[in-house]
Design brief:
- By secondary structure, the protein is an alpha/beta fold.
- It folds into five domains: about 160 residues, no CATH class; about 45 residues, no CATH class; about 80 residues, Molybdopterin biosynthesis moea protein, domain 3 (Molybdopterin biosynthesis moeA protein, domain 3); about 140 residues, Molybdenum Cofactor Biosythetic Enzyme, Chain A (3-Layer(aba) Sandwich), CATH 3.40.980.10; about 70 residues, Beta-clip.
- Helix content is about 25%, strand content about 25%.
- The strands form eleven sheets. Strands 9, 28, 31, 33, 34, 35 and 37 form a seven-stranded mixed beta sheet that branches. It has a six-stranded mixed beta sheet with strand order 16-13-15-14-18-17, with no helix packed on it.
- The longest helix is centred in the C-terminal third of the chain and has 19 residues.
- The radius of gyration is 35 Å and the shape is flat.
- The two termini are about 45 Å apart.
- The structure holds adenosine monophosphate (AMP) and magnesium ion.
């Protein structure tokens, strides 16, 4: 996306009102480029087009100025209604250098052909130009003031106005010649005048169509091109095609006009993951668990969209942004106990004070208590003016309209300061926090009725293997029941995501490919089990490898075989081993944190703790081992068999013992790390 300029060279250091451009792919924007003049911009665009054409990629290139003038102008100027005739007419006559250009003179020349009072107006130069009005007084336009597009786009400027804040006329005059040259040099299609059947498309944009004000600390033009590029690059091909289906053969059109809501929605979408996001450094054979986790943490980012929900409907969701307190908690100083309030601390000894009329209870508007008197006050009541200290009712005797008590008592005793919990405008909860009951209470307490949260992560679960039949169906000899699917679906649900049951597929690539496709249309992540290694019947890894987007992660872990991590149609795929014990362990150790990240949560290692072992084991160096375990009498017991086919052991266990990468000799009493299933959200 390019933000054009009709002016002169803007100097070495980045500034606003220069030319700015930004490249984005799949919702990820690169750094905005500062292009100090049109010749630099033209070179930059040419180099970009060359590189993208060579790489076989398509480029939708947006420019923020009209590609055509209001109806009738092209014919009047060139004898043809063809907008490109205007492009060439201008290209032949515009003289452009970084220091100066002839746009105002040329505008005057055009005006003189049509009576000398329009269509162009505004003169940025000191000297007068014959036929070019400086202001709209005396201005007469033989053509429509606006194109059909500008009639619909609220706030858009007329292309006849050559200067003043927001004007676009100069950009058109100084931009079209550059586009005309690029069009000759490269195979490009210009929207909406031509079929978009070339690798490069030129499209008219207007960032203000959907963007609000730029953040204060950023250069507006840089921010705008970045936002538009990011947004347009997230659009699905179908949506893009719909937005591009426009008929405006002479005047041109503004991309997205009439689809503003859809664009705004798209701009709230997070970027998709790239195809190489699971690539491993070359030469790696067995990756230690901690390194594999660090890689996942680094590579994965949230993939779910954002919506605003009332707090009651937002529980179970993850905060998409930091949220700040609308009101302090407590909003006013108040009393923590039932008792009597007065002003100031009191020294040791007996005190007697007259009791004021009435009382202060929770919910009362704070009144005033005369100095030297005490007031009856009840827990939660805002402190009346003249009260900053409260004495417990149990420590007081009341008689004859007076209270009596023993000092000393400190000033401020038994009261809560305003905002002592959370002050107004403080961050109440940070982005990535999952909203549970406690968080719902806090949000409500600080006056947040609605919060920005991530949409639920949809996780497709798919079992693969010719041997699998559904539990309850007749099983032929050699067949087994699909145990992984019910397990993984429930794990996903308990992790707080939305499981999508994609059933079973036999060891058949075509069927598997179709199923992955169906899953990629509805889910944000696909979990498969089985067929993930490098054997003859390991079709998950074979297919993903064919698609060019898979890495077999050989992780030094037991139980577990390689994890096949890849991308299918832009959706990450976690290929878990088929073995139920390995599938569950890998889903806990690698799948759980990965899902937290994709769902927008904060990365966190599962909380384990050291307990004495109730078992004995010699562990070899070179891999991390997870044993099915539970705590009994304060010691970690492990399941009798480490055999990874023992599904019953998963059920027996309540957590995992994690034995680190290094060798270890464990005897009863040795401290080992125990991670309860609850630490993973199970
Ligand atoms: P694989 O990873 O496909 O080589 O499978 C490894 C082992 O796990 C084989 O013994 C499979 O039969 C078994 N297995 C694969 N998928 C499942 C499943 N969904 N339920 C139970 N066992 C499975
Ligand atoms: Mg298999």
């Amino acid at each position: 996306m390019v933000d054009w300029s009709g002016g002169n060279d803007t100097g070495k250091s980045p500034r606003r009102d220069a030319i700015w451009a930004c490249v984005a792919r799949l919702g990820r924007a690169e750094a905005p480029q500062y292009l100090r003049n049109r010749s630099v911009a033209e070179d930059w665009l040419a180099r970009l087009f060359e590189a993208e054409i060579a790489a076989g990629r398509r480029v939708l290139t947006g420019f923020d100025f009209p590609f055509g003038y209001p109806a009738g102008f092209a014919t009047a100027l060139t004898g043809k209604s063809d907008p490109f005739a205007v492009w060439h007419w201008l290209e032949d006559r515009i003289e452009d250098s970084p220091q100066a250009n002839n746009r105002f003179d040329l505008a005057g020349e055009i005006n003189r052909r049509f009576g000398g009072r329009g269509p162009f107006w505004f003169n940025g130069l000191k000297r007068d130009i014959d036929g070019l009005p400086r202001k709209k007084t005396g201005y007469e336009n033989p053509f429509p003031d606006r194109r059909l597009a500008e009639e619909q786009a609220k706030g858009a400027f007329s292309c006849w106005q050559l200067g003043g804040t927001g004007a676009v006329g100069s950009q058109v005059m100084m931009g079209l010649p550059v586009l005309a040259r690029l069009r000759r040099r490269f195979e490009v299609a210009v929207w909406p005048f031509e079929q978009l059947d070339k690798q490069i498309a030129l499209v008219e944009i207007w960032p203000s169509l959907t963007l609000g004000a730029a953040p204060e600390d950023q250069i507006k033009d840089a921010w705008q091109v970045r936002e538009v590029a990011r947004t347009v690059s997230t659009l699905e091909p179908d949506a893009l095609a719909e937005m591009l289906a426009v008929d405006a053969p002479e005047e041109g059109w503004i991309f997205g006009l009439g689809h503003e809501d859809r664009l705004r929605q798209a701009s709230a979408q997070p970027p998709r993951l790239t195809n190489d996001c699971f690539a491993l450094p070359p030469g790696v054979h067995w990756t230690p668990v901690q390194e594999a986790l660090a890689l996942l943490q680094e590579r994965l980012s949230p993939v779910t969209g954002v919506e605003h929900l009332p707090v009651a409907a937002a529980t179970g969701r993850v905060l998409a942004e930091d949220v700040t307190a609308v009101r302090s908690n407590p909003p006013l100083p108040n009393t923590a106990v039932d008792g009597y309030g007065f002003s100031g601390g009191k020294a040791a000894g007996v005190h007697r004070m007259p009791l004021a009329e009435g009382r202060a209870a929770a919910g009362d508007r704070p009144g005033v208590v005369p100095s030297g008197t005490a007031v009856r006050i009840l827990t939660g009541a805002a402190l009346p003016e003249g009260v900053d200290t409260v004495i417990l009712q149990e420590d007081v005797t009341v008689s004859d309209g007076h209270i009596a008590f023993h000092g000393p008592i400190k000033a401020g005793a038994n009261t809560r300061r305003a905002g002592e919990d959370v002050a107004q405008s403080d961050i109440a909860l940070t982005q990535g926090t999952r909203i549970g009951p406690a968080q719902a209470a806090l949000l409500a307490a600080v006056g947040l009725a609605e919060v920005p949260v991530r949409k639920p992560l949809r996780v497709a679960v798919l079992s693969t293997g010719a041997e699998l039949v559904e539990a309850g169906e007749a099983a032929a000899p050699g067949q087994i029941f699909d145990a992984n699917r019910p397990m993984l679906l429930e794990m996903v649900r308990r992790f707080g995501h939305e499981p999508v049951d994609m059933g079973r597929v036999p060891d058949d690539r075509k069927v598997l490919a179709e199923r992955l496709h169906a899953a990629s249309k509805t889910a944000d992540l696909i979990l498969t089990s089985g067929g993930a290694s490098a054997g003859d019947e390991d079709h998950v890894s074979a297919l993903l490898t064919e698609a060019g987007a898979m890495t077999l992660w050989r992780i030094a872990v037991k139980p577990g075989r390689p994890l096949a991590l890849g991308m299918w149609a832009g959706v990450p795929v976690f290929g878990l081993p088929g073995n139920p014990v390995a599938a569950m362990t890998c889903a806990l150790i690698f799948g759980h944190p990965a899902m937290v990240r994709l769902a927008g949560g904060a990365w966190r290692a599962p909380q384990g703790f050291e307990v004495p072992a109730a078992f004995q084991k010699n562990k070899k160096h070179g891999r991390t081992e997870y044993l099915r375990a539970r705590i009994r009498e304060g010691r970690a017991e492990v399941f009798a068999s480490e055999g990874s086919g023992r599904i019953s052991g998963l059920s027996w266990a309540e957590g995992l013992v994690e034995l680190p990468h290094e060798a270890a000799e464990i005897v009863p009493g040795t401290l080992v790390r125990y991670i309860p299933f609850a630490s993973f959200g199970l």
